[in-house]
Amino acid sequence: MASQAYADPAQGAAAERLAEEQRPAPSVQDLTLRQYLDTHVVPNLLPGLNAVAEARPENPVEWLAHYLLKNSQAAAGGAASPVEGKVGQS
Q: For the whole model, what pTM was predicted?
């Protein structure tokens, strides 16, 4: 059964081809703020906040910064492994 969305079937076929075309992924600059944060910040930040809440270090900002640096290196394929436990505590 043919679609009735377009009066001209050629227009409908052209629109369908356009909709099915492969497009490059949007660059970081093309993302909305929410998309950017959800994709690049939240996946690292939330586990770090949970870990700092469990550890309750004397300097939570420094502890969290250390945690994020170690985990971002691991996520980027670096040699560092995810940090767990007592990071940066003296």
A: 0.54
